[in-house]
Amino acid sequence: MFYKDDRLAIFIDGANLYASAKALGFDIDYKLLRQEFDRRGKLMRAYYYTALMEGEDYSPIRPLVDWLHYNGYCVVTKPAKEYTDTLGRRKVKGNMDIELTIDAMQLAPRLDHAVLFSGDGDFRPLIEALQRQGVRVSVVSTIRSQPPMIADDLRRQADNFIELDALRDIVGRPPRESVGGGGGSASSEG
């Protein structure tokens, strides 16, 4: 599905990829991930999207975001919104779907192949729009977790589905044993 002369871009829904890898029991090594897709074609851009909590002295994801930024990723962040749900529980919302969609649509005329690291079914219309512009779309997520981390209609819309678990030996490493889910490594979103 990948051709050496393909102009390629990867779009990583950070929270979704982190949750998928965690469900499979490993962390993502983002240096190896970039190298792998650089090898599969002409990697034009590698985007990483995540929301950040503002006002906290320390965010466990900040070291990862900084590392990605300095190692060739286009990091797109926005402040997470904190709210209280109807049951009085503190919740955090940080959806990056619009930012990812806009970047993918703007880059589409200069791409042959887009790789989306997300299982979020909300991206199905994006995949369809990219395909109408002649861009092949691969989706990376997992059906091997319980429950599966990919929406069935997203998987069906994509030109190619890549099982994240099949990439474990290429872009994965054992999860780190740290409080907060990653504590400063470049290997997790947590």
From TrEMBL:
Which Pfam families does UniProt cross-reference here? NYN
Q: Which domain of life is it from?
A: Bacteria
CDD domains in the cross-refs: PIN_LabA
**Residues covered by the NYN domain:** 7-165
InterPro entries per record: LabA (IPR047140), NYN (IPR021139)
This protein is called what? Answer: NYN domain-containing protein
- Species assigned in the record: Paracoccus benzoatiresistens
